[in-house]
Amino acid sequence: MKVTTIAAIALIAIIVTGIGAYAAGYYTQNNGQPQPTPTPTTSPSSSPTITPTPTPSPSPTPTRSPTPTVIPTASPSPTPSPTPMHTPTTLRVATTTSLYDTGLEDTPETLKNGTVVKTDLKDAFQAKYPWITVNFIALGTGAAIAQAQRGDADMLLVHSPSQELTFLKGGFGVDRKIIAYNFFIIVGPTNNLAGITSTDSVSDALVKIYNAPHTGNNPVYWFSRNDASGTNTKEISLWNAVANITGQNYTQLTNSTANPWFKSTGTGMGQTLLATNYYGSVGGYTIADTGTYLSYSTRGDIQLKVYVQGQQSLLNVYSAIIDDPRNANLASTNFAASLLFVNYLVSTEGQQLIGNYGVSLYNQSLFTPFVPLATGLVSDPQLLSWIKSYAYMSSDTPPIISASGTECPSQYRYNEGTLYSITYIANYNANISINVPNYYIVDKPKTTTAQTIPTQSTKLYIV
Predict the structure, then answer these.
(1) pLDDT digits over 103-130, tens only?
(2) CA distances from 415 to 328, 410, 411 (A)
(3) Residue 332: which of 158, 156, 89 has the closest Cα?
(4) pTM for the complete prediction?
(5) What is the largest CA-CA distance in the chain?
(6) Contact between 316 and 184 (Cβ < 8 Å)
């Protein structure tokens, strides 16, 4: 019995061993062995064949090869690449109120048929350079220059050559460029108590205005901006020119106790016209630029008449000047955007926009573009000589106002590129004539709108 049991156990062991050997062979054979040899001995030798781990490697390789799909991602990079070049930026332009008050700088025109046309400088420039936002800061020329000197503006649009020259010489500005011009005018009430005639010179007219309140009881008033603006600078020079006749220079005239007829508004051009018109029934006179007068007169805001105009001493020239980035206090100002804007202003497109603004409403240009005259496309030697004598600057050390100079002395030009070799394409998209007679304003029917009365703050300046 014991022997039988042992024999049975041995038999079971033999069977189990056989089954294990068979299972091992079967497993190896079905594990992808390329060699059909069932011999377990061969299976280990074929294990090197298992190193065909190349089989896994090919599968990742094709999978990794799609990494070229990254290439499409890289190829679109050209599209975004301009974005860093055109990062949104702001351009701050300190400007004279005589430009701003006309609407030329940032007010779309409303035509007679009610259509609104975006022909102002801001809208036209931003349409061309959408990443630049232009903000105008309207001040008198003196205040605008002070703004730029502090670095609170990136560039200037002003009209006082003597003050502009001081700004350049002080190391604050570069790349001055004349963009347009018109004429100042002397305006007054329809009753014309001073008795000015259209043939009077500027000096004759001012002497008559001075004499009127001193002879008899004529209630004649003169309204002065007295704000160091370009218009005020011109006014000062005109009153000082007749000081030998009146016995008082401009500073003496502003003494309100001695001269109650001489009113200082301390405000911009538009507000000064309104203040003058407010006193129109008793004889208010002032000096204004053509553009602002036409704008306010055509709207019916004022009823003042033009008495003296179109004379050389009344010439009014507008220039652009960029802050000098080499000045440590101005290093953070936006030179690049400023240069783009100045180039736009003197381009054919910009010049035509300046010349056309307001024509449909006022039947004449508010401002005349300078480039056509400067480049010889329009010939008027006398007018050009007036502008050169009044607004050109020499390259001397120090520079002076001189007809033999240029728009900007060479020592104050910086990275200007082609700014001083601008060409002008005739008949680009406008019909502009710049003959001096065009500056003679003819009385015409006014629009029937309510008259604007000066604000209380304006009245406080003049009582």
Answers:
(1) 999 988 776 677 777 889 999 999 999 9
(2) 17, 12, 12
(3) 89
(4) 0.74
(5) 165
(6) yes
